[in-house]
TrEMBL record:
InterPro entries: EmrE-like
Top-level taxonomic group: Bacteria
Transmembrane segments: 9-26, 38-58, 70-88, 94-116, 123-142, 154-170, 182-200, 212-232, 244-264, 270-287
Protein's name according to its UniProt entry: DMT family transporter
Keywords (A to Z) from UniProt: Membrane, Transmembrane, Transmembrane helix
Oxidoreductase among keywords: no
């Protein structure tokens, strides 16, 4: 495939992944309504994904055995981060949880600077400032202090923090292949969900066939196919383009939750969310500028 065609295909995959994950809250809440509350629904989804990906991981077992342990741990931790993100949809408003997760660039920049000694361009310093201001504005929209007000919001914030730790480890070590990476990602999420689930709600007495079907479909589509495709596409695009295209997730989640669930953000929450998104743009902007200067 020609380089230009590869770039177009990879861009469409990333864009489609953002749209798809903007609708991810739907199967999570559907499973909650079918009796899989707390983290049990996410455990079912990610467990199904891990089972579906297991044959490909077995074929690639030599690569898994030779993989860097820190890389494996980082990918598994990324799965735990997305597990918290998933469970959070049962306990808070969709758009707010997504926006809290999208503070990841702020935490990643801080971690990269403090732990790894990576350089921090001025625009990324501005991104940190804007992201933190956006966080305070978003969470200060109510009557209380500007901190997460419920379990869902805390999970959204924690998921972004954990994802930043995971991606810092992924960047520092050789990457995993798409198939084995997706398996480790789903496996980490499944183990995390199984550990968390008993703390949030009792184990369901029985599972209905529709619940199993929803879990299998969501695991295959979101945690299997989309993550593997995103891994392939991200390796062929500038990080800036990948980050910007994935921001479609915020728009799709906000619009779909407003239309289908009647969830709306207030003016201050929208203003804070806009600052968070702007911080994300500034976080990747220096990369784009650097490539433009070299070209």
């Amino acid at each position: 495939m020609e380089p230009a065609a590869t770039t177009r295909l990879a861009s469409l995959i990333v864009l489609g992944t953002g749209v798809l994950w903007g609708l991810y809250w739907l199967p999570v809440r559907e499973l909650g309504g079918l009796g899989l509350g707390g983290a049990w629904g996410t455990a079912a989804i990610t467990g199904a994904a891990a089972l579906l990906l297991a044959p490909m991981a077995w074929v690639r077992r030599s690569s898994l055995a030779a993989a860097d342990p820190v890389a494996l741990a980082s990918v598994a931790l990324g799965g735990v981060a997305f597990m918290l993100y998933s469970v959070g949809f049962l306990y808070g408003r969709v758009a707010l949880i997504v926006l809290l997760f999208f503070l990841t660039p702020v935490w990643s920049t801080i971690l990269g600077r403090v732990l790894m000694g990576w350089p921090t361009p001025r625009l990324r310093l501005a991104a940190i400032g804007l992201g933190l201001v956006g966080l305070v504005v978003m969470l200060g929209a109510g009557d209380g202090p500007p901190v997460p007000q419920g379990l869902g919001e805390w999970m959204g914030l924690a998921s972004g923090l954990l994802w930043s730790v995971a991606t810092t480890g992924m960047r520092a070590r050789p990457p995993l292949g798409a198939a084995e990476g997706a398996f480790v990602f789903a496996g980490g999420a499944a183990l995390g969900a199984l550990a968390l689930a008993p703390l949030l709600s009792p184990l369901p007495a029985a599972l209905a066939l529709p619940a199993l079907a929803w879990a299998a479909a969501a695991g295959a589509l979101w945690w299997g196919l989309s993550i593997a495709a995103l891994t392939w596409a991200s390796a062929r695009l500038e990080p800036a383009r990948t980050g910007l295209l994935l921001m479609t997730e915020v728009l799709v989640s906000a619009v779909s939750a407003a239309v289908l669930a009647g969830e709306h953000l207030g003016p201050r929450e929208m203003a804070g969310g806009a600052l968070v998104l702007l911080a994300g743009v500034l976080e990747v902007w220096p990369v784009r500028r650097a490539r433009r200067v070299r070209s």
